[in-house]
């Protein structure tokens, strides 16, 4: 649960200055989905209940300019 561990913030605070990006499973899954959507796609239909992964995909699509 992210609320319990604050997305790994307490771990990073304890380790010090580390140049590593912490990615949770949902962000990684969203990146895999985004890499499988063609760059030239202008529209994408998202169906079903939106989860944290779904929201991450939709956000990335919007940033890319995809409807």
Automatic annotation (TrEMBL):
Taxonomy, superkingdom: Eukaryota
Full protein name: Very-long-chain aldehyde decarbonylase CER1-like C-terminal domain-containing protein
UniProt organism field: Nymphaea colorata (pocket water lily)
